[in-house]
Amino acid sequence: MITIKDVSHRYTMGKKAKETVVPVLSHINFHVQKGEIVSLVGKSGSGKSTLLHIIGGFIKPSSGEVAINGTEITSWDEGRLADFRLQHIGYIFQNFQLIPSMTAAQNIELPLILNGTSKQIRNQKVADMLRQVELEAYPHHYPSELSGGQQQRVAIARALILDPPLILADEPTGSLDSDTEAELLALIQKLNKQNGITFFLITHDQEVAAIADRQLEIKDGQMLQAKGVMPV
Ligand SMILES: Nc1ncnc2c1ncn2[C@@H]1O[C@H](COP(=O)(O)OP(=O)(O)OP(=O)(O)O)[C@@H](O)[C@H]1O
């Protein structure tokens, strides 16, 4: 589902004459299989978010290759990547990133509108997704009227509404208390088991890392040979 081959990345800062190069990732190799839950742990600044953005095609690596679902995306332009992302990758963030002026149902519906889906099918899919994330009683609530855990469920429903095979998550439970976190992790496990969705999760949190089939660890931009990692 995700193949990362010899990926290195450095950021370039400042103007030409005074350019500073910040090396962040060095010769990263790994493979995530379809249907796995894989967590990525590492200290702050170790390069986790950079790697997630490279997997999602938001950052082009300085060198190396990225393939998603068997498709090599490294050299693609933004237009092609945007279409590909919509079909293949859902995102979940620590701070939910819902649109505050839209209700739960409208937030979930948005990718279907962008995708050109008819109103009748949109209504069916949103109702079904609200049931899957156990929010059928809250379609007309705005994000500010929902708890943190409920908001993250809306974000998950929005990430899943176009049936992507892969979800990338950046600290998905970082803003939640421990009970709500446990409920959300159970939901991720259910979606993984029932729908076969692959999850790649960045986390600082051992509870989150514990639901993963495998744990990758990054240190100073290098992948450690963590438990069960399969080098490509
Ligand atoms: N746009 C950028 N330009 C320059 N340097 C950057 C940029 N984005 C990140 N960095 C640097 O790259 C390094 C890795 O950052 P990254 O956000 O990938 O780490 P992280 O492991 O996700 O950290 P955290 O856990 O704190 O979110 C850091 O030293 C950071 O300062």
TrEMBL record:
> Which UniProt keywords are listed?
ATP-binding, Nucleotide-binding, Transport
Gene Ontology terms, MF aspect? ATP binding; ATP hydrolysis activity; transmembrane transporter activity
| One Pfam entry name | ABC_tran
What PROSITE patterns does UniProt report for this protein, alphabetically? ABC_TRANSPORTER_1 (PS00211), ABC_TRANSPORTER_2 (PS50893)
Domain named ABC transporter is located at: 2-232
InterPro entries documented for this protein: AAA+_ATPase (IPR003593), ABC_transporter-like_ATP-bd (IPR003439), ABC_transporter-like_CS (IPR017871), ABC_transpr_LolD-like (IPR015854), MacB-like_ATP-bd (IPR017911), P-loop_NTPase (IPR027417)
**Domain of life from the UniProt record:** Bacteria
User: Which SUPFAM superfamilies does the annotation name?
Assistant: P-loop containing nucleoside triphosphate hydrolases
Q: Does the keyword Nucleotide-binding apply?
A: yes
- For whether the record's keyword set contains ATP-binding, the answer is yes
Query: Where does it sit, as one GO cellular component term?
Result: membrane protein complex
Q: Which family does it belong to?
A: Belongs to the ABC transporter superfamily.
Q: This chain belongs to which protein, by name?
A: Acetoin utilization transport system ATP-binding protein
Organism from which the protein derives:
Terribacillus aidingensis
